[in-house]
Amino acid sequence: MEGLPAIEAAAREAEFADIDRRLELCREDLNQATVLLNTYDTQKSMEELKQLQELVIQAKADLNPQKKFSFKPHSAATQAGEPAPPPKANTPAPLEASAFEDVGTQVRDLRTQTVSLALKGHDVALTDVTDSKVFLTEPTTAVRINKARSSLFVMAPVAGSVFLEDCQDCTFVVACHQVSHNPNPQLAR
Q1: Which of 103, 120, 114 minimizes the C-alpha distance to 158?
Q2: Nearest 5°: phi and psi at 16?
Q3: How far apart are CA 85 and CA 139, in angstroms?
Q4: pTM of the predicted model as reported, rounded to 2 decimal places
Q5: What is the domain extent for residue 98?
Q6: What's the count of helices (H) and strands (E) in the chain, helices before strands?
Q7: What is the pLDDT of residues 14-54, one digit of tens each?
C-alpha cells in the first residue's frame, strides 16, 4: 500500500513525458508545414500549440504536490560559530545605482580598478577610465564612454546606443542597437 503513490507518480511522469514528446512532434510538423500554410493559419496553429503546452504545464503543477517548507541546512563552519569566509579577491564588488544617485549614473576617474555596475534601465556615462575592467551587469538604455585608455568594457545588452569618444587601446564587448565612435585608429573593436 505504501508504494502505491510512488507507482502512480511514476506512471503520471511517463504519461507527461509521452505528451511532451507528442507536442514536440506536433511542433516539428507545424514547422515543416509553414511552407504550405498561409501566415494566419501558421500563427493560429502556433497559438493553439502554445495553449496546449500551457495546459500541460498547469496539469503537471496541479498533480504534483508542493514541497513543504523546510529550513536550509547550514554548513559545519557556520554551525560551529565561525564567520563565513570572505568573498574571493578576484570578484568585483557590485555597485548599485543608489551609490551614484548624487551624480546620476555618471562614473568618473577609474584608475586600475575592476568594477561591476548594476544600473538596470539607466543611461550610463563613464569618463576618465584608465587600465580598468568595467562590467555593466544589468541591461541599460544607453552608454557613453569618454576618455578611456587601455581598459576592458563588458556590457549587458544596451537597448539604445553606445557612444565612444576619445578611447584608446580599449576592448568593448556589447550587444546594442547602435555604436557611435570617433574615428580613432587605436580603438579595438
Answers
A1: 120
A2: -65, -35
A3: 30
A4: 0.45
A5: 94-181
A6: 3, 10
A7: 888 888 888 888 888 877 777 777 878 878 888 888 888 88
Residue 79 within any structural domain of the chain? no
pLDDT recorded at residue 182: 77
Same domain? 17 vs 59: yes
Q: In what helix (H) or strand (E) does residue 143 lie, and over which residues does it extend?
A: strand 142-149
The pLDDT tens digits of the residues spanning 96-144 come to 443 443 334 778 888 888 888 777 777 888 899 999 999 988 888 889 9
Residue 140 DSSP label: B
**What does the chain come to in residues?**
189
C-alpha cell at 63: 498533480
104 Ramachandran zone, left/alpha/beta (phi>0; psi -120 to 50): left
Burial profile 171-184: b = 16 or more Cβ within 10 angstroms, e = fewer: ebebebeeeeeeee
| Helix, strand, or coil (residue 44) | helix
Nearest by Cα to 134 from 147, 156, 150, 115 = 115
